[in-house]
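Let us begin with a simple case.
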Amino acid sequence: FSGIGRTKATAVIHEWLTHALAAAAATNVVVEGNEASLITPTTLTRVTNSCQINQKAVAVSGTQDAVNKAGMSKELAYRVVLHGKEIKRDIETALLQNTQALTGSTTIARRLNGVAGFVVTNTTTITTAMTVADVNGILEDCWNEGGDPDILMGNGNTKRLISALAHSVTGTNISWDVNSAQKQFVSAVDIWDGDFGVQRVVPNRFDATLTVKALQMDYWKLAELRPMAITQLAKTGDTEKRMLNSECTLECRAENANGILTHAGT
């Protein structure tokens, strides 16, 4: 949610265009004085995703807002801030899913398609223990497709497995860092520097899947139809009511620049 750029959605079904470069050709040469041959433009690919609405509402009584409370000045203000953070967590969770976009109806809420639903070209599933070769393999797949992932993202289990690779490889110069003077033992791998670029290894507590997501972040955008806003609801008694709404979706500009390695975990 915070690591990708923002763009504007203008409809509940958000649309954008993607286009792949033509394959490189060693034979694309011409003689001197050649008459230009026009190339018929290829059709751009139209991609869509549904804008979903995330909402939280709160009602605080006049008494709750008036009494003196330790650690806060106003109950209503505290609850509004709290629910705003919760909505961001909900959106983060949705952005990672393979949910396939739902257009919705009067009884079914619209839902966006997440990262796992977009990435289809570079996907690998392993049922054995994850190895360095497995991680490099998914990065190579992305590289072959023209991608340059800058993040390896996974849940806590995945993060631990990647860090553990540093001491599971024999016959190499990989080792842990022990600073005896500071009594510090560094056992985490936060940077993956391999044959296909440098990636930050980022744990994401909202990803429930056992996957390594190799992501090129500049190809992902959060398209906002309605940025998060606070609405004051009608007062019908001795309560103050607020509603928080956000309407947005995920935009993927080149799914083949990204990859997903599904692993067995521990």
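The second case is a distinct protein. As before, the sequence precedes its structure tokens.
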Amino acid sequence: MKLIRGLPVLHDSRQGVVVTLGAFDGLHLGHQALIARARERARERNARSMMLTFEPMPREYLQPDSAPARLTNFRERWRLAAASGLDELCVLRFGARLRGLTGEAFAQRLAQAFGATVIVVGHDFRFGRDGTGTAEGLAACGQRLGFEVEVVAPVKGEGERVSSTAVRESLVAGDFSRAALLLGRRYTMRGRVTRGAQLGRTLGFPTANLRLKRRRAPLGGIFAVLVHGVASGAWPGVASLGTRPTVAGVEPWLETFLFDFAADLYGREIEVEFVAKIRDEARFDSLDAMVARMHEDVSEARRLLAG
């Protein structure tokens, strides 16, 4: 899959692109339905399929203090998009210039810069200045500019509409089975292992540390996890996602202790799969009290993963 940052320069080989656009946070089953339909329409037309998305996500720019927690950072979204079979992923910077475009001006860019012949969107799609444009409005623009708009109906999982909001609610509640149903996969976080303060190593719990690279995480606490990317199969462990209040931490980290594992993982890209929540993050009165609870967390994680 080709990654494009910013508006592409249109040339003849780009004619006939089928575009699906939106925030695509989490790449849940609803998003996957949009991608599948875009790929299907592209095959019918012998065209290329493209996902067009934004960074930061629009609500992060418009409402920085109240934007929803991110299910996926950019790299995670890119990895998931690449696995979907799309030909291209285009990322536009969402800022004052893009925000200020009218619906008509935005539609013109879709036609002129991308050469879009079909645009696939969800039923609740909004675009243009202040989000006033609708799918119906985009279709009206398309009649003038030469592209077709197809609206994909909501996807339901066991009777409920699949949405990023529903996934977030599941993660906050520790209901990973429901989250997996909505996502079509287990919820994971991915990143490159970074060297931290190495406090865990001195306490007997060396951890693989990931920077979250998102403004807010959609969950927090202590979890039983499976780690991918360190061996041929998934490796069991226990993870802490939070700010480490006992040591006056501020920045949130995902710190994972892999059971019976000794190899150096610095610089390795890993993926942490959340299996079950053990407890919320807590502040302890001493490091000794924290270590005692960490031993309990390890025992509980082993029990949960063995079952």
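The first strand starts at residue 2 and ends at 5. The mean pLDDT is 91.
Keep these points in mind for the review questions at the end of the chapter.
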